Amino acid sequence: MKPTPPPRTYRVKSFGCQMNVYDGERMAELLGQQGIQPASEGEEADLVVLNTCHIREKAAEKVYSDIGRLRREDGTAPLIAVAGCVAQAEGEEIMARAPAVSMVVGPQAYHRLPGMIAEAVEGRRSVDTDMPAETKFDALPARRKVGPSAFLTVQEGCDKFCTYCVVPYTRGAEISRPFNDLIEEAKKLVDAGAREITLLGQNVNAWRDEAGHGLEKLVEELASIDALARIRYTTSHPNDMTEGLIAAHRDIDKLMPFLHLPVQAGNDRVLKAMNRSHSADSYLRVLDKVRAARPDIALSGDFIVGFPGETDAEFKDTLRLVELVGYAQCFSFKYSPRPGTPAATMADQVAVGVMDERLQRLQAALNASQLAFNRASVGKRCQVLVERRGKYDGQWLGKSPWLQSVHFSGDAAIGDLVEVDLVEAGGNSLAGRLAGASPRPDLTDRGVRVAQ
Ligand code: SAH
Ligand code: SF4
Ligand code: F3S
């Protein structure tokens, strides 16, 4: 590679889970500290960080087409760094397959980016997929500006080794960040504008402090930060849903009534083959306890259809479970064999056509469940955290406590918590009316023509 002038502008593109979004924001802060500015909308950046996801084949292949698209008409390209889980999983392979890439950096080594950029400027390519003892969390600068809803990674990695999943290999063993560091970072986020914090982890409810206390202790302490209005956490594993954390849903008002608790499948043989270490029944019992603690809780989950060997009858157990739970929203995927995972070499891989058909049936059931949940919210008055402007003049978009998107018009600003009456439900969002505000007069009813 030829030496290039030091980059003046950057763009970070994050794919995959919210932990990548969080890492992307912290990398951006680091690049800013190096004197590199964010490229403005539409402008080509001198340095592009592709913060990738390896969870399914499609997501992983995307990085190569993205790299191709970065090539300019004159044949040159910006400096390209591949970060994230594809970087960790495919390190050297990316270097061989994509000569335009000058840096490959795994999720635990982001703080080493400045050194890698200096090498790239000199024309040297580098790969760093170490999992060093010093953590990126300590070494990366804190974010100085965030929106009303901010992410905070509290736990990383996974020791569960579900047989289909790459995360234990790409993110390493479970680690919990220290309690005091988290409180300090949360306070900075609040000072930077956050009114809601979502605690993140691949298994966020496996977080423990130095004395072995669970996530509820962190939630409790965060709830004492006055200017912080809302706390959420994601993603949780059913086996780490402790009595203490369930009780927090009853006792701590700022903890929002929403729980993302993936189950993956409704059949016990399939769950066992997935190495999920819970049964359909033990999962449902956890949900019963959570509902007893917080009756209005909105439930969410993840599903995989077409795991190797899944029969149609076993798939129907998943549909039955969906029926029983009444989810507020969910993610569902076709099984994707991932290199190096045990399931990838299991016999009886399910045909793509069968997976397609199962996914359609599952998604129809999940969509119906989501619509029913949203419809049941109509008539409720709730607080909405305003996150951005809507499509129309004077319209705002925000989130209900149950993580539904709500749009409404009227006097508000980004970051406000406003009282809204939910008046109409669609599958993906609800219409609200500012409580106390009178409805907009419908002039057409009175024979007045309204300019379009
Ligand atoms: N730690 C979380 C989820 C992490 S990955 C948990 O245990 O639930 C996010 C979701 O991607 C998973 O819940 C699963 O539904 C899906 N997923 C993971 N590996 C997959 C694969 N090989 N094929 C299809 N979907 C997969
Ligand atoms: Fe993957 Fe299972 Fe760990 Fe979730 S719990 S990250 S699905 S291995
Ligand atoms: Fe994807 Fe890695 Fe997250 S594989 S889902 S970016 S942990």
Automatic annotation (TrEMBL):
EC number: 2.8.4.3
Region Disordered: start-end pairs: 431-452
GO CC annotations on file: cytosol
Radical SAM core domain ranges (all copies): 144-372
Amino acids binding [4Fe-4S] cluster 1: C17, C53, C85
The MTTase N-terminal domain, residue ranges: 8-122
Domain TRAM: 375-436
Residues engaged in binding [4Fe-4S] cluster 2: C158, C162, C165
Chief location bin: cytoplasm
Key word Iron present: yes
Biased composition (Basic and acidic residues): 442-452
Lineage: Bacteria, Pseudomonadati, Pseudomonadota, Alphaproteobacteria, Sphingomonadales
Free-text cofactor note: Binds 2 [4Fe-4S] clusters. One cluster is coordinated with 3 cysteines and an exchangeable S-adenosyl-L-methionine.
Name of the top EC class for this enzyme: transferase
Gene3D superfamilies referenced in this protein's UniProt entry, alphabetically: Methylthiotransferase, N-terminal domain, tm_1862 like domain
Oligomeric and partner information: Monomer.
Family from the record: Belongs to the methylthiotransferase family. MiaB subfamily.
Cofactor(s) annotated in UniProt: [4Fe-4S] cluster
CDD domains noted in UniProt: Radical_SAM
Function summary: Catalyzes the methylthiolation of N6-(dimethylallyl)adenosine (i(6)A), leading to the formation of 2-methylthio-N6-(dimethylallyl)adenosine (ms(2)i(6)A) at position 37 in tRNAs that read codons beginning with uridine.
Pfam families documented for this protein: Radical_SAM (PF04055), TRAM (PF01938), UPF0004 (PF00919)
UniProt-recorded name of the protein: tRNA-2-methylthio-N(6)-dimethylallyladenosine synthase
Cellular compartment(s): Cytoplasm
